[in-house]
Amino acid sequence: MAARSIILLLVVVGIAFASPVPAERQQKEKEIKEDKEVDTPSLMEAEAFDEDCKLVASWFDWNYAETRQHLRNQQEFEKLVEKAQGIWNFTIEEKIFAGSVFSRTPGAPTRLYFKSEDENNCPEDVQKPLRSFAEKTGLSVELHCGMRFSFFEQEDRVAKIDDILARQGFKHASSAIQPGDVILVSVERTRNMKYKPSEPQEDNSGDYDTLAGLVQNGYQDPIAKDILSDLGDTTGIFVSIMDNVGEPMEMDDHAYGGR
Asked: Is there a contact between 62 and 240 (Cβ–Cβ < 8 Å)?
């Protein structure tokens, strides 16, 4: 009985002398845990990324390692484009960012486009973020300057195009901005239209130079000049006449990156 009393006494003493965890420490530990949860990708995110890599590798017949690096590089490119917008759109008077294109295949160069007076007149402060991007990814960045329109001006032109076509009674029309001052417009052929349906085009996804080259050489699409005359300047606009345009045009590219 005496031995049992001593054990109980020790337990009680241990409880009595155990110092409680201060509230400040509990709060600090909670904040540290929350920070770690924010900074560390969840297992589900990692698994989802891994699954994306497998799907992309299978679709394009790339090996897994290069596909994984390709998608990681794309994430870094998105950051570069966001920085480009911040530097060259909102901190200067005139917005000059004109678009971007990510590598079509692993290791291929990326592109940034800028509005300027000529192709040699690129932003002076562009080199530092490009060097940082190249160090992280191993990818080079091709600068395409001398664009006539910024991306935001192209968005404004697309809105005006949509309005003009709507006022003309087109129920189905779609527009897509491509790098190089190009806007692709697709409209359905109406009963009284004098233009025949456009010939089927070959899949030229990723070929940004053919149409851009026509624009740089001063080519004007006669259909665009006709049905979009209210726009005034139809430079870079290419119109396709379709028998049926039931859904918006799907493009394998966009201003903020790509595959």
From this structure: no
